Amino acid sequence: MATAARKTAVSGQPKEIVYVWQGKDRQGKLVQGEMRANSETIVNASLRRQGIMVTKVKKRSFSSGKKITDKDITLFTRQLATMMKAGVPLLQSFEIVAKGHANPSVAKLLMDIRGDVETGTSLNQAFRKYPLYFDALFCNLVSAGEQAGILEDLLTRLAIYKEKTLAIKAKIKSALFYPISIIVVAFVVTAVIMIWVVPAFKEVFASFGADLPAPTLIVMAISDFFVAYWYLIFGGLFAVIYLFFQSWKRSPKVQHFMDRTLLKLPIFGDVIRKATIARWSRTLATMFAAGVPLVESLDSVGGASGNAVYVDATKRIQTEVSTGTSLTSAMQNANVFPAMVTQMVAIGEESGALDSMLGKVADFYEAEVDEAVASLSSLMEPMIMAFLGVVIGGLVVAMYLPIFKLGAVV
Predict the structure, then answer these.
(1) pLDDT greater than 70 at residue 60
(2) pLDDT of residue 342
(3) Cα(346)–Cα(340) distance, rounded to whole angstroms?
(4) pTM higher than 0.90, yes or no?
(5) Residue 98 · residue 110 · CB < 8 Å
(6) Which long-range contacts (CB under 8 A, 24 or more apart) does 239-243 make?
(7) I need a labelling partner for 256 at 20 to 30 A (CA). Which of 30, 128, 311, 410 fits?
(8) How confident is the model at residue 62, as a pLDDT?
(9) 57 beta partners
């Protein structure tokens, strides 16, 4: 396959486009390839200079794909690290990963980054153009790897870091998904009973000509409300949930309030705290091991923790460390880390193995999260069964009480 010569990027030029071309070389052999250029005319001129008679040139089309997720970026990081370890050139690695990816959106993103690198942009600067997918931590580590000449090693560290972070997030989601799904199912079942089942009982009870028990009257009143205003109930509920999550996502005040509340929850709070400390420790260990100075490392650590309480604590720690305070003392002053964590950090500072000790802290708390999620699942099953029994069973008993009363009279 013929290849196009590299072109130097000129400031002010329009964005380059990927063109797919076909033609014949000087021996009349059919050749084809891809080229990034500002226009089709430049593609034709460049290929003619290479002795290729062009027969077809068209823009490369990228079909719209799914949203790019953290899992996609993690997989890309692992693949890129593996290929660079194997000696595959950087540009070729990007092309292989892009062409082999199932999501066209990821393929387009990687080809755009490849084009930037091909025109002379450093890899970390190419990543920085897409902050939605590559955060400051990712870009800083890539930059450190480029400067030190150990890019493949740092990409491997990044891949391990992102895989562990993704795994711990998945565990937290799985712990929360079960009870939330049961609550949703219970609400739907209750709504069905209220809208369709209870009115049928109401017609039967109307022929009794006797006073109904108080629980039955309460359930029938709730049913009448559901039947009359079901569209407001469902519409209002969905609107409240949507607005709540939008506020949580966009409002710093709501984020701080919810993150503090989550840490104080009686059952889930401890799991969330352990997961947050694990992410915090893993991020700082990865940054420090890559040779990034401690104060600069703390810039990325707070945001990676995923909790506003620890973001604020990290900012205070960074301020104290920048004025000469030891990391151990600054973490103790923050008052959000268990004694075990600060003791491990103190040992790491004294022995000069801070990254190793932080890694051990992360390993410990990741194992704690695994055990907590497993025990939480076992604990939640009887609690959820009791909840469903009270809700659904209470409705059924309330509707059968008049029948029991009628049988006693007879």
Answers:
(1) no
(2) 94
(3) 10
(4) no
(5) yes
(6) none
(7) 128
(8) 54
(9) 21
Residue 408 pLDDT: 54
Question: Which of 80-84, 210-214, 216-220, 254-258 shows the lowest mean pLDDT across its residues?
Answer: 210-214
Q: How far apart are CA 116 and CA 127, in angstroms?
A: 9
Task: Specify the 3-state DSSP secondary structure of 29.
Answer: coil
pLDDT of residue 173: 82
Q: How far apart are CA 24 and CA 46, in angstroms?
A: 14
Report, in this order, helix, strand and coil percent for the chain, each rounded to 5.
75, 5, 20
Confidence class for position 15, pLDDT limits 50, 70, 90? low
What residue type is 117 in one-letter code? V
Round to whole Å and give the CA distance between 16 and 19.
9
pLDDT at 404 over 50: yes
What's the residue count for the chain?
410
- CA neighbor of 132 nearest in space, from 65, 196, 68, 45: 68
CA distance 152 to 80: 8
Neighbours of 225 (CB within 10 A): 13
Rounded Cα gap, residues 271 and 275, in angstroms: 6
DSSP state at residue 60: P
Q: Has residue 345 got a pLDDT over 90?
A: yes
The identity of residue 201, as a single letter, is F
User: In which residue are the tokens 């491990």 written?
Assistant: 344
The DSSP string of 64-98 is --PPP-HHHHHHHHHHHHHHHHTT--HHHHHHHHH
Q: Which two tokens stand for residue 409?
A: 């009279």
Q: What is the 3-state secondary structure (H, E, C) of 90-141?
A: HHHHHHHHHHHCCCHHHHHHHHHHHHHHHCCCCHHHHHHCCCCCCCHHHHHH
Average pLDDT, the chain: 85
Answer whether residue 8 shows pLDDT above 80.
Answer: no
pLDDT, position 190: 87
Is the pLDDT reported for residue 157 higher than 80? yes
Report the distance separating Cα 182 and Cα 267, nearest Å: 17
Backbone torsions φ then ψ of 325, nearest 5 degrees: -75, 145
Residue 17: strand pairing partners = 37
Looking at residue 104, its pLDDT comes to 85
Burial class (CB in 10 A: 0-12, 13-18, 19+), 337: buried
- Both tokens of 210, joined, read 């006797």
